[in-house]
C-alpha cells in the first residue's frame, strides 16, 4: 500500500480549476519532486493534501486512512508534515522555546503521567536536548535564544524545517525549502533532506524549481501543468520528455519566440 495517495483531487476557484482530478500514489521511503510552471497548481495541491484548502472533489488518504474530511491539525496528528507557517508560531518566544513546544506537541500523552516534579524536570531536559539537537542540525544553534520575530529570512526558512523535524512526521512536504536562502544556507537544508531520504521510513514530497536539485534528489518526478498531472516517472525520462521540455522548461515556447 502507498504511504500517501490522492484520488481525483480537484479544487475550483470560481471558474478556474487549479488542481484537476490529480490521482497519484506516493510509496513509502521515496522522494517525489513536484514540478511545473508558475501557477501550475503545485502549492494548491500541497494545500489540498495538508487540509489548508478544502477539495471540491476527490480524496486524500494516508496509509489507507481517508483524511479528506479532516482539518489540518488532525492530518498533522495522522502523520502528515507540512512546513509550519511562521505566522502560527509564538513570535516573542525564542527559537528554542518554539522548537521545544513543537517537540512536546509531537509526544502526545506525556502530560497524562500526572504532576510529578521529577518527571516534569526530566521531560523538560529531554525536550530541550532534542530541540537543541534539531537546531544544531539546521545550523540555528547559535540563534536559539533569539525571538522568532527578529530572525532574518533565511533563518526563518531553516526554522520552518526545524519545526517540521520536531514533529517527526511520516510524510515530509517541502515547498521550495531553499527559496530566499543564500548560497551558504541552502546546502544545510539540502543535506537534511538527503539524510531524511536515507531514512527509508520517511516519504518526501518536494516542490522545487531548481532542476539541479530535483535531478539529484528525486526518485521520481511528477509534472503539473494547468492543474493537470501531465507526466510522471523516473527523473531522467521525465525531464527528457517532450511534454516537460515544452510545458516546464519552455523549449517549445522559446523556439517559437526565436522564430517570430
Ligand atoms: N485561494 C485562491 N483563490 C483563487 N485562486 C487561487 C487561490 N490559490 C491559488 N489560486 C490559483 O490557482 C492556480 C495555481 O496556483 P499555485 O500557487 O498552486 O501554483 P504553483 O504551481 O504553486 O505556482 P508557483 O510555482 O508560482 O508557486 C493559480 O492560477 C492561482 O492563481
From TrEMBL:
GO molecular function, one term: ATP hydrolysis activity
Source organism superkingdom: Bacteria
UniProtKB keywords: ATP-binding, Cell membrane, Membrane, Nucleotide-binding, Transport
Ranges in coiled-coil conformation: none
Name listed for the protein in its UniProt record: Amino acid/amide ABC transporter ATP-binding protein 1 (HAAT family)
Range of residues in the leader sequence: none
Keyword Cell cycle applies: no
Cellular compartments per GO CC: plasma membrane
Originating organism: Diaphorobacter nitroreducens
Residues of the ABC transporter domain: 4-251
A Pfam family this chain is assigned to: ABC_tran
